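Entry for the shared binder. Reason: the reviewer on the internal report wants the predicted structure included alongside the sequence.
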Amino acid sequence: MPPEPRPSKIRTVIVDDEPLARSNLAVLLRHDPDIEIVRECGSGAEALAEIRSAKPDLVFLDVQMPECDGFDVLELLGPDLPPAVVFVTAYDQYALRAFETGALDYLLKPFDNARFDLALDRAKQRITRSRELPRKLERLAIKGTGQVSFVKVSEIDWIEAADYYACLHVGPKSHLLRRSMSELEQELDPDVFCRIHRSSIVNLDRVRGLKLSEDGEYEVLLDNGARLRLSRRYRKQLQSRMGVRDAGMYNGTP
């Protein structure tokens, strides 16, 4: 039998405005034969252009950078988000926000080799799973007591974060799935599903409108009558996906 083909290398981008920090990460990554460093970027704007063109598997991303920080990069990437993003920073106060925006791990400087290896191993596992998945996820398996049921992805109206689970709203029914929102966001078809809040993902085919609430924030209105809060962080992404102009979103005429 012919030998099995070797898996392709993990294409990696390093983003940090400090040359020494980029160099240190590059040295650690070059010890791993599975890694291919495709670019080192010194700014968020440079990273955006490189990630969109090179489509890497893995990005090590600094948080604090002038003009365009790490969170801006993830927000502006939208559906072009790589399979694995690891934040690298000297500030621990951004950890929760990093995970909410879809980061896989959060390396706090200074870190030792063991902690770096753990983050890299997690990234490799995530990337392997993403390569094994079909191009478009068609169904999700829901494990119950003594049985497994399947939900067609096309039938999901919206998804809600529920502690360590994701709650799938399908018509009048709901199903608990032990998956994180960031994992589902990566696997769902970005042409159909859109993150609108750290705790909500909607099926764009179910969206019938946007409404400005009394507190000045927007709500997403679904066909089934559900009203979901639209976070400012995800507003631009939804605007683009729904073809809504900036002026309409900000002057109260959605």
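Summary line for the report: The CA atoms of residues 121 and 127 lie 10 Å apart.
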